[in-house]
Amino acid sequence: MTLKSFFNSILYFVLALVLCQIYFWIEKYVYVREIWQVILLTLISLLFLAIVIFLARQLGLLEEFKTLKTRKAWQLIISAFLMNLFVQLCGSVIRANLEGMKPTNDNEGLVNIMHMNPWLAFFMPIIFAPIIEETIFRGLLMTRVFKQGSLIGFLTSAFAFGYIHHPDGIGSWVTYAGMGMVLAWVYQRSNRLEYSIMMHMLNNILVIVLIALTLYLS
Length: 218
What we know:
The chain has one domain (3-217). It has eight helices and no strands. It has helices at residues 3-27, 35-58, 71-98, 105-114, 118-145, 151-164, 170-190, 193-217. The chain is mostly helical.
């Protein structure tokens, strides 16, 4: 590694940290109730989302979502989606047998969102979070901070992704770090951030639909 590439890696790491901090700050307010607060949070989130997408395009991390029109793209995405379902099942089995099947902290947060503003329940986990998280943890960490295709970049991306979802036991670590590995695999296999974003969106849609059904039936 040359001195220039080392300093570039440091700069990209700092950029990833800054984006993470802004993202965490916005996420703190997802439970707002007043309409004006929801509108303000939406505007701030859209502005941040636009900035992140612009940066991703400028850095060559994100191209166009029309690449998702191919059968090959969806074969990879659906394969990864099914792999992730298996990972989720493994995490649930571990929680059931070792941790009394307590819900993960992140799913508790999703349940709270479902009880609040419907727009935020749709926008934040399905649109906002996948684009932001994939840009940071796949785009920046895997191909800018670390060398593209490196094992350390792959693992750092996966475990950092798991960490930000507040794992509180082995089962939740398996769930979220495992999902991070699946997403990292999709990105590494396709070299397209759009693929991992779409797979992330599909996962969050499934989680919210299942939570909504559970709340409705109960």
